[in-house]
Predict the structure.
Amino acid sequence: MRSSNRIEEIRSKAAELFANHGYGAVGVAELGEAVGLGKGALYHHISSKEELLYDISTRYIERLIENGRDIIAKELDPSERIKALSRAMINVVYRHRAEMTVCFREIHSLSGERHQRVSQLHNDYQQLWIDTIAMGVAQKKFRSIERTAIKGIMGMFFYSFLWLKPEGAQNADQVGDVFSDLILHSLVPSND
Amino acid sequence: MRSSNRIEEIRSKAAELFANHGYGAVGVAELGEAVGLGKGALYHHISSKEELLYDISTRYIERLIENGRDIIAKELDPSERIKALSRAMINVVYRHRAEMTVCFREIHSLSGERHQRVSQLHNDYQQLWIDTIAMGVAQKKFRSIERTAIKGIMGMFFYSFLWLKPEGAQNADQVGDVFSDLILHSLVPSND
């Protein structure tokens, strides 16, 4: 197996174990066993368990940010942007549920610079929403809402890994549309 | 120290350790050390680490449910109910942040019956919101929203432990009001 495939396999298995049992409860030996490698051989592929957590935690949030920037570059209507951002987010949770669970639930397990970097990525992602809402406000299509309300909106998405069931009745786009519908209704300007 | 005080102290310290390091990463020996008890003496007060996690996880969600039922019994206007439910929820997160972090983040660490029971409590709490929104719909004050949207609303609150700072600029009632304002706007019936 090529080394890049091997590291993919290790990351994927680690995400699954961390999501199911918690990062703190999974040892390097257990992880090695799950991918059929001894501790020594495993350390040939990863530098530490925390580095692995960091890789898992940054990867999909970086992808969400990139993807969000693409949406913003292409889509000039703020309501359509919110619909697209919402679908994109739920699609990532559907497709990479273990990784997103780890990304949102285990951030406290990262230390120092790594913790800061993942927090910064969460902020960068949130900024895409802040900018989109600000644009809608500037175009008088949305009412202005507080930063705290935007944190609440992020929570709708960030918490969804806990209950979203990809095998459920609604597909990712449908769930994304329910969320964006709620958000867009909450942004309707008042009549006065 | 009376035994009931001692168990309170153990629960509180355990919640703090679980919130900061993750349930899986905290051993019984470490917990004993934090409260100045040997493993044997600690097991005089608790039956297992998981039982302790269960106690921490059920306590404040049970309190939220009780409190929510009181609000519903007293407050007949659906908008006022939502405001009161929202304030009550954020107040609990402000006052018992470690416990709420553990309750929402470590539910996967509970097994079998305990896991079911805590999931059931989360559902019971959500039901208070479902009933309140249904009442508003019946009174034609709210538009109807999907169950998935209500899950999203729960996420706003359930995720807040991660970023709410009781030492921040807004107090719990203010944050609660920002959230209920967002929710109430999202429930405004359409004109058609």
User: Anything to note?
Assistant: Residues 58 and 118 of chain A are 6 Å apart (CA to CA). DSSP finds nine helices and no strands in chain A.
